[in-house]
Write a structure and sequence with these properties.
Layout: E1 2-4, E2 8-12, E3 16-21, E4 26-31, H1 32-37, E5 39-40, E6 45-47, H2 52-60, E7 64-66, E8 90-94, H3 100-107, E9 113-118, H4 123-133, H5 136-140, E10 145-150, H6 158-165, E11 169-174, E12 177-178, E13 181-182, E14 191-193, H7 198-206, E15 214-217, E16 223-224, H8 242-249, E17 277-279, E18 284-287, E19 290-292, E20 299-300, E21 305-306, E22 320-323, E23 326-329, H9 331-342
Parallel strand pairs: 8-9, 8-15, 9-10, 10-11
Antiparallel strand pairs: 1-6, 1-7, 2-3, 3-4, 5-6, 12-13, 14-17, 15-16, 18-19, 20-21, 22-23
Bound molecules: iron/sulfur cluster.
Iron/sulfur cluster (SF4) binds near residues 268, 271, 273, 277 and 297.
C-alpha cells in the first residue's frame, strides 16, 4: 500500500488537481482521475492502485512511500493550525503621513515588512526615506525589510538607483504611465501564486492570505485594512500610542476580511491553486461562508486556462455566474467548451 507523505497535500480543482509539496516548495498538476484513486485514511491519503505509470511518477517525485496499513499510526498527519508572532504581518503606508513617531508606533506590532508609497521621488522624498532607513526604529525593531512603491518615477532616475542600492530596501516598484494615468501599483488587481509552503498553506486553511493581519494607511492618514478596502477606522495622525492602534486592529469589523477562506469564495473554491495563491481582490459576502468577487481572476479553473493562454474564455462565456444573487454553473455549456479545448479526456 502506498501512502502520501504528510507534507504532500492533495488539492482538487474543477478540471485537475495538484500535489503540493510543502517541504520542497514545489507542485505537480495531476489529473482528477488520480485524485479519485487516493483514499483518505485516518491520517494520510493512500493508494491501492496497481497503475504503474502513476506509481512510478509518484515514487520518482518522492510523493509516496510504501507501508503496511497497521504501521500508519506511526505517521501522524501534519498539524494545520496557523499563528504568527506578530499582530500585523504587513503594513502599507504613504510617505506623506509617515514620520518617526508613527513608524515607532507601527513597529510595536512586531511587523516585519513595511511598504512605503511615494507619490513623487525627488531629493526631499529620498532624504525622508533615508532618515527612516537609518533610524534607530528600523535598526532595532522587528522591521526586517522595506518595500518601496513609486507612483511617479522613472527607472533611470538617480534616486531610484540610490534606493535600489540600500540593502534594507527589499524591492522598488515603479508605476507605469498608462493612457496618461499612473497605474496603481500597490492596489491593482493582483493574483500571485507562491510556491507551496507550510506557512501559506496553513494560513489559507483559516484566513485570507492578503487581508489577514494587514494594515493600510492612506495619504490622508486614514486607517484601513488594505488599499482595496473602503472602510476607515480612524486616522493615524490622532494615534498617540500603540495601545490606540491595537484597539482599532482588534475591532471585529476591522478584521472582517481576515478570516475569509478561499474555499468559501465562488470560483476559488474550485481552483487547484487556492492554497498557494495571494489575491488582493475584495471578497464580498453573499451569506454566511459564501463570498464572491466583482473582478475576475486571470485564471479560469473551469477550463484550466490563464487569460494569456490560447483558448482562454471568461467565466460568463463558460456559463458561470457569480454575483450577489448566487453562484451557478451551466454544466452542459462548460462540458462542451472543455471538450473543444481538451478533447474527451
Ligand atoms: S481562481 Fe484565481 S484567485 Fe482564485 S484561487 Fe485560483 S488563482 Fe487564486
Amino acid at each position: 500500500m502506498y501512502f502520501l507523505y504528510s507534507n504532500i497535500k492533495l488539492v482538487k480543482g474543477s478540471n485537475r488537481s495538484i500535489l503540493y509539496d510543502l517541504h520542497n516548495l514545489k507542485y505537480d498538476l495531476i489529473p482528477n482521475e488520480l485524485y479519485y484513486l487516493f483514499k483518505k485514511s485516518n491520517t494520510l491519503f493512500y493508494l491501492e492502485s496497481e497503475n504503474s505509470e502513476y506509481i512510478d511518477f509518484l515514487n520518482k517525485n518522492e510523493y509516496i512511500f510504501e507501508l503496511e496499513k497497521e504501521e500508519e499510526v506511526l505517521f501522524p498527519s501534519l498539524d494545520l493550525s496557523w499563528d504568527y508572532p506578530a499582530e500585523l504581518t504587513n503594513i502599507i503606508v504613504h510617505l506623506t503621513v509617515l514620520n518617526l513617531h508613527i513608524l515607532s508606533v507601527l513597529a510595536e506590532s512586531n511587523v516585519k515588512a513595511i511598504g512605503i508609497i511615494i507619490n513623487e521621488l525627488n531629493e526631499t522624498s529620498y532624504n525622508k526615506i533615508l532618515s527612516i532607513v537609518n533610524s534607530r526604529i528600523s535598526k532595532e525593531t522587528s522591521i526586517q525589510a522595506i518595500e518601496i512603491f513609486i507612483l511617479n518615477g522613472k527607472d533611470g532616475n538617480v534616486f531610484v538607483k540610490k534606493l535600489k542600492d540600500i540593502q534594507f530596501i527589499s524591492k522598488v516598484h515603479i508605476s507605469k504611465l498608462i493612457n496618461g494615468t499612473h497605474e496603481n501599483i500597490y492596489a491593482q488587481k493582483r493574483v500571485i501564486l507562491n510556491p507551496p509552503n507550510i506557512s501559506l498553506y496553513t494560513e489559507l486553511q483559516s484566513h485570507h492570505s492578503y487581508f489577514n493581519r494587514k494594515l493600510y494607511i492612506d495619504e490622508h492618514g486614514n486607517i484601513k485594512n488594505a488599499p482595496s478596502a473602503s472602510d476607515i477606522y480612524g486616522n493615524i495622525k490622532k494615534i498617540k500610542t500603540y495601545k490606540n492602534l491595537k484597539e482599532i486592529i482588534e475591532l471585529e469589523d476591522f478584521r472582517k476580511y481576515w478570516f475569509v477562506k478561499k474555499h468559501e469564495c465562488d470560483v476559488c473554491k474550485d481552483c487547484e491553486f487556492r492554497y498557494m495563491c495571494i489575491d488582493n481582490r475584495l471578497p464580498i459576502k453573499r451569506k454566511e461562508n459564501e463570498f464572491f468577487h466583482l473582478e475576475e481572476c486571470d485564471y479560469n479553473p473551469y477550463i484550466s486556462k490563464w487569460v494569456y493562454q490560447k483558448g482562454y474564455k471568461a467565466l460568463t462565456e463558460c456559463g458561470i455566474q457569480s454575483n450577489k444573487q448566487g453562484f451557478k454553473i451551466n454544466r452542459k455549456k462548460l462540458n462542451t467548451i472543455n471538450k473543444e479545448l481538451w478533447g474527451d479526456d
